[in-house]
Amino acid sequence: MSAQSNADPAELAKFSDLAHRWWDQDSEFKPLHRINPLRLDWIDGLASVAGKNVLDVGCGGGILSDAMARRGAQVTGIDLASKALKVAQLHALEASTPNVNYREVSAEELAAELPGSFDVVTCMEMLEHVPRPASVVNACSRLVKPGGWVFFSTINRNAKAFLFAILGAEYMLRMLPRGTHEYAKFIRPSELATHCRAADLELIQTRGMEYNPLTQHYWLSSDTAVNYLFATRRL
């Protein structure tokens, strides 16, 4: 099975169809814009991205890539959704974002091309959209230098996550388009931890992300029942 095949055409089409709305902060991507400062500060607080060579896997329209570049990182964003990448490139040009470039390539393919090339690798809100998340985790590990940081964020698989991430976010609050997530593709922290261990990644910190729909406030916590983040280091 090729690395390229670790992508769901329906998932790529879904995000490509919405590509023109990536940088509209009142669009379907509003939650990403709202959580971006939280995840950026968390990543930067642990890995200090300024002056580092950073890879953003599954970068989409470049929301996190752009922010890390503005913190002083040299950023490469990769994705397989062509339209989203074009939007990311256009935004970087319009906003004069320094030190960021984008490529249409899979994590697995880039790991074969540039092993051990990055100080920091991020893979946020992406693992729950691919057929074989363990393959992506392994590729992220191969891409980072020994001792380098790899960050993941995804969604837990349990009744609360189904209620909040699908019924709540997609159907009741309409924060996301219906069909954005598939419950069967959600990943328990224990499963992601297993993938990380198999890829020689040591889990350093786990954080949960919570949301209050009344105040529209997001915050990091110790509750990993729904959205959660992993900080790992390459052994």
List the main descriptive attributes of the protein structure presented here.
alpha/beta; about 240 residues; 8 helices; about 25% strand; Rossmann fold; eight-stranded mixed sheet
Itemize the secondary structure elements and their pairings.
Layout: H1 9-17, H2 30-47, E1 53-57, H3 63-70, E2 74-79, H4 82-94, E3 100-104, H5 107-113, E4 118-124, H6 133-143, E5 144-155, H7 159-172, H8 189-198, E6 201-212, E7 217-221, E8 227-234
Helix pairs in contact: 2-3, 5-6, 6-8
Task: Give an overview in words.
- This protein has one domain: 3-Layer(aba) Sandwich (Rossmann fold), CATH 3.40.50.150.
- Helices cover 38% and strands 26% of the residues.
- The protein is built from eight helices and eight strands, in the order H-H-E-H-E-H-E-H-E-H-E-H-H-E-E-E.
- 43% of the residues are buried.
The CATH top-level class label:
Alpha Beta
The helix content is 25-40%
* Sheet with most strands: 8 strands, mixed
Total of domains: 1
- Give the oligomer, counting copies of the same chain as homo and different chains as hetero: single chain
- First-residue to last-residue Cα separation: 27 Å
**Could you name the ranges where pLDDT drops below 50 across 5 or more consecutive residues?**
none
Apparent shape: globular
Q: Treating each run of at least 4 consecutive H or I residues as one helix, how many helices? A: 8
Rg, Cα atoms, Å: 16 Å
**Class from helix and strand fractions:** alpha/beta
Query: Could you give the order of strands across the largest sheet?
Result: 3-2-1-4-5-8-6-7
